[in-house]
Amino acid sequence: xxxxxxxxxxxxxxxxxxxxxxxxxxxxxxxxxxxxxxxxxxxxxxxxxxxxxxxxxxxxxxxxxxxxxxxxxxxxxxxxxxxxxxxxxxxxxxxxxxxxxxxxxxxxxxxxxxxxxx
Length: 118
Description:
Layout: E1 5-9, E2 12-16, E3 24-25, H1 26-33, H2 37-49, H3 55-58, E4 59-63, E5 69-73, H4 75-82, H5 88-99, H6 101-109, H7 113-117
Antiparallel strand pairs: 1-2, 3-5, 4-5
Helix pairs in contact: 1-2
């Protein structure tokens, strides 16, 4: 499975999409945003519990080489997390998102965006 890639380096964001999205594990999201994995896990649970995103659409269960099932989350969840977590990297990512005209239109179409921002 092609998973894509996101990198935040020197206040720049680079995104390489695979089939229109990126798939990252909770650990990769925590590393990307410079936060603890527990913060990512707690916010994923809160987003899903509030019904902001649908788990069936944003989560893919990947089996790694050790036959361990690892949930991967797509760009929609990564974007939602960027607006809920607080770090220098999330700030850079949010600014990058909002600076892109096409992304801004998509962002406001996310269900319950107001709940993510509060």
